[in-house]
Amino acid sequence: MSSFGQVIHINLFGESHGESIGLVINNLPAGLTLDKKRIEHALFKRRPKSNLSTARQEKDPYKIVSGYFNDKTTGTPLTILIPNEDTRSRDYTPEILRPSHADFTAKVKYNDSNDYRGGGHFSGRLTTPIVILGAICESILEEKGIIVSSHIASIKDISDTSFADIDITEDILKKLNLSDFPVVNSTVKAKYEAQILDAKHNLDSVGGTIETMIHGIPAGYGYPFFDSVESILAHLLFSVPAVKGVEFGKGFAITKLFGSEANDSFILENGQIKTSSNNSGGIQGGISNGMPITFKVAIKPTASIAKPQKTVNIETMEETTLELKGRHDPAIVHRVIHVINAITNYAVLELILRTEGTKWIG
Amino acid sequence: MSSFGQVIHINLFGESHGESIGLVINNLPAGLTLDKKRIEHALFKRRPKSNLSTARQEKDPYKIVSGYFNDKTTGTPLTILIPNEDTRSRDYTPEILRPSHADFTAKVKYNDSNDYRGGGHFSGRLTTPIVILGAICESILEEKGIIVSSHIASIKDISDTSFADIDITEDILKKLNLSDFPVVNSTVKAKYEAQILDAKHNLDSVGGTIETMIHGIPAGYGYPFFDSVESILAHLLFSVPAVKGVEFGKGFAITKLFGSEANDSFILENGQIKTSSNNSGGIQGGISNGMPITFKVAIKPTASIAKPQKTVNIETMEETTLELKGRHDPAIVHRVIHVINAITNYAVLELILRTEGTKWIG
Amino acid sequence: MSSFGQVIHINLFGESHGESIGLVINNLPAGLTLDKKRIEHALFKRRPKSNLSTARQEKDPYKIVSGYFNDKTTGTPLTILIPNEDTRSRDYTPEILRPSHADFTAKVKYNDSNDYRGGGHFSGRLTTPIVILGAICESILEEKGIIVSSHIASIKDISDTSFADIDITEDILKKLNLSDFPVVNSTVKAKYEAQILDAKHNLDSVGGTIETMIHGIPAGYGYPFFDSVESILAHLLFSVPAVKGVEFGKGFAITKLFGSEANDSFILENGQIKTSSNNSGGIQGGISNGMPITFKVAIKPTASIAKPQKTVNIETMEETTLELKGRHDPAIVHRVIHVINAITNYAVLELILRTEGTKWIG
Amino acid sequence: MSSFGQVIHINLFGESHGESIGLVINNLPAGLTLDKKRIEHALFKRRPKSNLSTARQEKDPYKIVSGYFNDKTTGTPLTILIPNEDTRSRDYTPEILRPSHADFTAKVKYNDSNDYRGGGHFSGRLTTPIVILGAICESILEEKGIIVSSHIASIKDISDTSFADIDITEDILKKLNLSDFPVVNSTVKAKYEAQILDAKHNLDSVGGTIETMIHGIPAGYGYPFFDSVESILAHLLFSVPAVKGVEFGKGFAITKLFGSEANDSFILENGQIKTSSNNSGGIQGGISNGMPITFKVAIKPTASIAKPQKTVNIETMEETTLELKGRHDPAIVHRVIHVINAITNYAVLELILRTEGTKWIG
């Protein structure tokens, strides 16, 4: 379903070329003033721009159509609506299945009734309201000293410095959040761009990985088993189109270590219990341990490429060759990163609030 | 929380050294006869045995205390109860935090009131009823031609042949399901065992990866966004203790490919639409595409090792050294694999049933 | 929260004088053509009209902004949006609490940040999209031979003939559904209207009861305990503003009978098991028994009356007298009845689909 | 389903003559010491006793098999298990459908696989663990100054003094909670008993109504629409077997009043905003207003009566006469009242905790 959340329940709707897309956010507390500049900046960061992206100018003139009054949340459902402006009729050939798109699965699932235009409900455009949600949650978490921050950890074979390899300060994280192309090692940016432009030149595309840190989250959030921190985060991360892998802490690489290398020894630091390493990524038994929560996400290369591709015409049931017209993003990692950040902010808030409810009893 | 599921709702309970552990399974249809042999075999496979595991003899004499009458499910909640036999009092020192265990996080989360004995609710023992659940779901899926099967893809640096590299037949998958130490390439088993015993000899432990295939699942299951196939599977997989990463299809490796290499071309095979490669792991836009669903899971090295480890005594707030007594599993990958298989069977059934409900409308 | 439903999940949003109100309907099957005439008729029936209602002309020019393409549902969230036209600024005095309105509770709950204009999210206007939802569900149920139909069972002291006292045919039920002021005994309408106009004349208001029948629902739907037919129906019925009581079958009157009078004897009718009476209202053990499901709902008199009323000014914390300006509905039973019908149609569909999911296993 | 709750999630299981019945309570905070005496007293009150009930001696030797350690809740699922002792084989004739029991509906719903012995999962015995849950929640609410209390408002035609007609003090409510046969006007007890014994003498049964008050609940709990206080309470109340009606405040009788009579005027009392009457039952717009929440519940006459009844043999499909053997409760109102109280305590706690979660943001 297109809804999620027990405390802050969200409901996503819309298709790429329908009337509008939007998001209903339920149960936000009353009295919050939205930080419009933060929202604008978040939208700006996700927006396609420069020669690394498609030419389609997506402006996102969002409206808040409910739940906001006198510059404050009312406590009742907040609804974000983003009208689709670029919905002109075109020559669509939905019968020519685009490889590694949802064309085929949507057609089967929805018995040929799916809105295929621009990917419909499956379009990356649907992540725009999630970016707004993320900005709202970010404001709330920031007040509590919690920062979510990500960088482009790799594009194809080129890698940035990992969070694990340097001393991460709040300043570094905040700086990354200011950038629309966040990297730790500033010299890697040019290499990434060259890699992307090279793919573009070849009518091809590239993917990459995103590394995220949740800084300042106290120990004790999450649950054993089905609502573990990993479970909730992975559930939401895998809902972002193009994500094919999620790993926490050392992730898959931890399987190459001995237990004595992998274990995070407890130490005392200024009278606080910490761990000397953070291979667990800040989580043990599904619960935050007070260290930064870290994870990595794999983003597949953009499926839309201009190169001719073999595929099937599902109407005639014949094999054919597809040549996608128009301009295509040679990479989306630098855009998806802002969605990953957004949905992580939401996930953290939801995780915390699930636990906080019962503290009333205390 | 320790509950999950909208259609087949489950509720896990118990602590390693409490009275009993168990699972309530809600909404199973009435009239199913449980395959007791299959359940026994599943329990056998997960059970520690031989020199690769601890000496603790876990028998699992489970009882069904509700929802089963005249050898058939009644349709009301089916409750599995497994009494804990080995609950004798011991010298526990919960104040000495075991590295990379949930000792610290449980203590913080539950304000010192957690049942620390044997890991309490966090114990791997809690996965026993999940294995029974898995066997029940497996029977149901088998009737529909759906097979879930896994193999130990790697232990530390040694790897088995990947599902991606050979022709997978139903026979291979069924054979893997018969084995308590499933590998595709039979010669790798001895190497795995040597690796594990070597770790054991050094009072250390190793981890590994598990590769799973869901064979026979038709196209059209799952949802875009928050209930994508990946989201539901990852949610449940990450609830299994020791899992640190989940990747679908080509996973993280897909980020090293160009789009033209990563995309799965549609082809016709005996009049059916298939894809020539399966880098997407059988999922597009969060929905099954009719190809086998494949994923890999990272299992960290067993956290309990006999080697002395640095840690903190949380009572005295002093750093100290921990030497775990008793015998410890030098690896659990070959046991966790059966839990991964079990929870995947459950996840697939839940995914299918969520979609099937609305078909009544027709 | 303003959301409900596991299979057909809905999310209501909006305030009476905000930008728009609306409803997201998740998980409707793809390929349904909406019956626009039926929707228009349902909206017409709920709309205030004639001298029995306020002068405010509520047109409801709804838009479907997502989930509908080429005159068919797409299977992704269907979003209904109703812009608020009459949102001109007025002299609101939210500090003067209107008795038996949500002014006070909303103010407390939402820390003074609620949108008080026209009742905000609490406004009866929010039931408009529910009426559209009801019309959509009605089409689906009609195809399956299930009809939901209601009549105004009483207004103040005057009563209509009860469903229990006559032979109910499909024809009678369908005829009731055509009427915007549905009564079984046509002569009672004039008396009801006189009663309402009399209240109006006295600057006062009246309430009444609504009796509903769900005809054609097969035996076997619903669950014991927490998802009983009564639980799900009552949950939704009590979400309709102004509802103060819900009773099934004979309801409160059953407490005046002996068991031997109250019990519904099983009989055979054309080889089918029926009951000779229907005091249980078609439900036993929380599950439909194949007889019509019947219930009654109590609607309180409209809280807004022109008569002066004692109340409190919450700003000055002084007692005061409130004289509501404008024209006020002297009764809303004849409008709420269409909301009750609508939400019952939705409840029935949700109840059925919850059960149908597991039939796949069969 | 047999589960409920978002914050304190519960899962009921078991059949009357199966191995055990029980309840899993998820998400109770850690560190609570259960008040065993209160639980014992609650069980005592619900237990059949004296000549008003059947001879079957139900002892309820419950066990807590998980979630409790060192006399404190651990924060992980608390599981209550009650073994069924009286499970001897008897001559059951499930094919003779007992009128107004769930025999028929269970048989249809569960395709003949239901456990029919003693009503199976539909048995009133299943309410025993709910009584324990209620006692646990009662302790928590009492600490916060919230008291839930009920009295037998009527049995057949005889009525007790209503809460609405006298000044209710905490003392009165506490005294009612001490009684296993709670009435406001002590002289009515003898009349109730005579009424019940008279029915018993005639091999018949009687029903009645229960009136409940939630005292001390602050304003601001509950939600507009789908999670209104009425919706959550009614959902749970209607899950109790034998409940056929629920009304809040003045309930159905409010439909006989003019708006000017029905409205609750706001007044100031010691600087606090109160209402002069409480026809709304402490709820406006679905949200508590700080006045006591009051409601009434209709309990049908016990369906099991010794008098011969007409029914159908579903095997032979012939009409027949049923003469129930053994002794039968001529009334259960005085037992169900303790279940109503219990489930209300749970409902109130759940309602409060849903709201409290978001206060963290504040």
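The interface with chain C takes residues 6-8, 27-29, 32, 76, 140, 224, 352-354, 356-362 of chain B (CB under 8 Å).
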